Amino acid sequence: MDDEERIAIATGARPRALDPVVGHGAPSHRRWRVRYDDRPPAFAKIAAFDYTADWLRTEHANYEALAGQPYLSPVLGWHDDGEHPALVIEDLSDAIWPPPWTTERIDAVLAALSAIQATPPPASIADAFGALFDIHEGWDPMRADPSGALALGVFDRRWFESHADTLAAAAGSADLGGDALLHGDVRSDNLCFRDGRAVLVDWNWACRGASTLDVLSWLPSLNHEGGPEPWALMPGHGPHAALLAGFFLEHAGREPIPQAPHVRQLQLDQGVVALRWACHELGIRAPDTA
Fold it and tell me: What is the reported pLDDT for 23?
């Protein structure tokens, strides 16, 4: 069965054409803009691997559990052949995708995240924040073997040996607990703007935790893309900044991921900002490159 057939079964209508959607280049899914003769276009995502098939099944379940929310795209179709499931949602190619960032766009994202956190989490979304990607896997493995992180050039060994223990202790004190619904992966490539409101996509990491966590974890990428310093929006969160810095920089120093070759650079970009943020909040002299 090819992707056209999967989409036809999912939506009940055969496409006239499938146009490949080029994003960050990750081959974990096949992405198509679906054109029809007698209905508006749609967006289809079809799993390319076994593990991403499970991600897509989780994402579909989350879409179904949260159907009708204004921060969510409507699902137009779903088909699971047991191997390459297909999720079809509304086409968002005519929406505004950041960057650049403006005050109005930042406020729209904050409003959407507030609405998400105000939504009672469905029983199907039960994972705690960070459980899906082990948010605590940062300073401890880095202290055991700092070679990967040192190779990034963000700090030198002398700076690391002077401050890693303090940053690890701060990260360990970060409070993640709570029962607020969270998107879990807020970044510019996972959100867009339509009619003044923010719409979030890629819901396979939806989880529960402290109500501030979606905003806090978004701030490093926002700043890297020209937004304000994290402490200007969320001051007083040194432990969370240290936690994010450790996670991003430890992982950025690891081997590239063949199925997601863009990820290590994203982690490095966010890690540099998070480290500068942590140093600012904790009174630590930042390394010259952070």
Answer: 67
Mean model confidence pLDDT for the chain: 95
**Is 191:109 a contact under the CB 8 Å cutoff?**
yes
State the sign of the Cα–Cα–Cα–Cα dihedral 274, 280, 284, 289: positive
Class of domain 103-282: alpha beta
**Cβ atoms within 10 Å of 290's Cβ, excluding its own:** 20
Q: Identify the CA nearest to 64 among candidates 203, 205, 208.
A: 203
The mean pLDDT of 140-148, rounded to a whole number, is 97
Contact 199, 191 (CB under 8 A): yes
How far is the CA of 134 from the CAs of 130, 131, 244, 282, in angstroms?
A: 5, 5, 11, 23
- Kindly report the CATH class assigned to 3-90: alpha beta
Torsion over CA: 273, 276, 279, 280 (sign): negative
pTM over 0.85: yes
How far, in Å, CA of 173 to CA of 46, rounded?
40
> 45 - beta bridge partners?
31, 87
Q: List every span in the chain annotated with CATH 3.30.200.20.
A: 3-90
**Range list for CATH 3.90.1200 in the chain:** 103-282
